[in-house]
Amino acid sequence: AIGSVEALPALRQVIRRPNDHEYVLWDAAQAVRTISRSGALQYFTPLLEQHWSTAVREVAASAVGDIGGGEALLVLKKVFLQRDQTHRVREVAALALGGIGGAEAAEAVQVLSEAFQHENENFRALRDAAAIALGETGLV
Questions:
Q1: DSSP characters for 98-135?
Q2: Nearest Cα to 130, choosing from 87, 97, 83?
Q3: For residues 24-40, b (16+ Cβ closer than 10 Å) or e, as one string?
Q4: How far apart are CA 53 and CA 55, in angstroms?
Q5: Is the pTM of this model over 0.85?
Q6: How would you write the pLDDT of the chain (140 residues) with one tens digit per residue?
Q7: How many alpha carbons fall within 13 Å on the CB side of residue 48?
Q8: How far from 83 is each of 50, 78, 110, 116, CA to CA, in Å?
Q9: Among 122, 133, 111, 117, CA closest to 89
Q10: Contact 51, 86 (CB under 8 A)
């Protein structure tokens, strides 16, 4: 049934198909994100780093941010700093970093501050998006 753990194998097969439209991949990735809690970080990390679809990588970045924790922080940092990622995927990764709360938020701030030493307008835009997501913590 859709929404149950039994649907995960079929949804994961859809995500692997190279010829589906972005919106189909987006919906399948969102469904996996909603259903899958156990092992979700291990599932979404390769999608975020390697999937051909920008839509799937965006959902994966957001899912990794929702999972949170130190491992998620490292994954998002790596993806955010990858120059071959699209601007949109990096933006979602920045927002996901900003959404990680508690002590990890301070680590996210440090990651973003280091990354934004570049004098690039795209980086500044991402920094600003993350600062909004961080709220009162902000960037130092």
A1: HH--THHHHHHHHHHHHHTTS--HHHHHHHHHHHHHHT
A2: 97
A3: ebbbbbbbbbebbeeeb
A4: 5
A5: no
A6: 456 677 777 877 877 776 667 777 778 777 777 776 656 788 788 888 888 888 889 988 988 888 888 888 888 888 877 878 888 888 888 888 777 766 666 666 666 666 666 556 666 666 666 666 666 544 44
A7: 31
A8: 13, 10, 19, 13
A9: 122
A10: no
Tokens read off for 42:
């291990």
DSSP 3-state of 87: helix
Residue type, 23: Y
Q: Tokens 């970093």 sit at which residue?
A: 97
Domain residue extents for the chain: 5-134
CATH architecture of the domain 5-134 equals: Alpha Horseshoe (1.25)
HEC string of 22-86 equals HHHHHHHHHHHHHHCCCCHHHHHHHHHHHCCCHHHHHHHHHHHHHHCHHHHHHHHHHHHHCCCCC
